[in-house]
């Protein structure tokens, strides 16, 4: 959905008739009377609200990455959207970032999960703005920063131009085309699903990245097959996941049962996670934990976790393989297995029950910002025991 209520749709072929709504167009300029796309390097669309200080909406589901004030952007919000249709090939999912600038006030915080249509602030005139409007743009994930701007003040000065002249001359136009998409045409395309019919006609200056996209093709649903476990019917919400684990011989059950509501032990979780990741197990060699028998099934998983720095164990040299595992411990194992890069330090409190100085804060932050699970409230419950 559009981030603001508007008086008219964004039509690239008749923008001159909607100048009271869209004062600066995508890849446009600030020259009076010129409302053509591709005649400048403005990477977004400037939208005038229907009423002063109107509410601004999240355009798609996502996670708030930025909610702050800067001299140029004013109060602004950046939202990360994972698994959305790619602007060029809608059958492929990608990550995009939507950016909302010059807000009067902020209505969200960093790390917050938002749904399409949630209010994230109000339109305003903060930062480098000459009148109340919403600067709205959508960046590709590979843009060097968000919101992306195709030139710096230093580059404009080196070219002998001020900020507005640089936009009007199209400084950095190729980079704007590479790293941003036409935000409103993209949203129109998702809503209408009209790519197969060609979508709205756009001017010849607009590149392929602005072509509207369609919804993912609908497929006929098929019944979920039985898991083969007597205590997990096909209607169980997690039956597909349990099916996948069993088909890959990651789990085998206990006397024909999976025991989905039982707590999972530390060793059992390692076995599931390493099996899902295809991790090569460390066999032979030293035994790293005093409470893990070298001949047990647990030893290769515990030793692999130690060698790969997925876990460190306890200070007394034990692993406690048969202890139930907490949510914080579980996500440390999961994230360290699939994400090999160091996690960002945490400088703000993401969850009400996770202070910034506890060991699991980076893992809780990663869990939320990457939308690994849905949270009913702003609590992580780090000590909650995980079930199978």
Provide a compact summary of the structure:
The protein has 388 residues and is α+β, with helices and mostly antiparallel strands. It has 2 domains: 15-210, Distorted Sandwich (Glucose Permease (Domain IIA)); 262-369, no CATH class. It is built from 9 helices and 10 strands.
Topology:
Layout: E1 22-24, E2 45-47, E3 55-57, E4 62-70, E5 74-85, E6 93-106, E7 113-114, E8 119-123, E9 134-140, H1 153-158, H2 163-168, H3 173-179, E10 180-181, H4 183-192, H5 239-247, H6 266-277, H7 298-307, H8 327-338, H9 361-369
Antiparallel strand pairs: 1-2, 2-9, 3-8, 4-5, 4-7, 5-6, 6-8, 6-9, 9-10
Helix pairs in contact: 6-7, 6-8, 8-9
Overall description:
This protein has nine helices and ten strands. The protein is an alpha+beta fold. Strands 1, 2, 3, 4, 5, 6, 7, 8, 9 and 10 form a ten-stranded antiparallel β-sheet that branches. The radius of gyration is 26 Å and the shape is elongated. It starts with 21 loop residues before the first strand and ends in a 19-residue tail after the last helix.
Spans where pLDDT lies below 50 across 5 or more residues: 195-225
By CATH, the topology of the largest domain is Glucose Permease (Domain IIA)
Shape assignment:
elongated
Q: Residue share in helices?
A: 10-25%
Q: Report the top-level CATH class of the largest domain.
A: Mainly Beta
Calculate Rg over CA atoms.
Answer: 26 Å
Number of strands: 10
Total helices: the number is 9
For CATH, the homologous superfamily of the largest domain is named as Glucose Permease (Domain IIA)
- How would a crystallographer describe the biggest sheet? 10 strands, antiparallel
Structural classification: alpha+beta
Q: Strand fraction band? A: 15-25%
Number of domains: 2
Mean pLDDT across all amino acids? 85
> What is the name of the CATH architecture of the largest domain?
Distorted Sandwich
Question: End-to-end span in angstroms?
Answer: 38 Å
List the secondary-structure elements in sequence, H or E: EEEEEEEEEHHHEHHHHHH
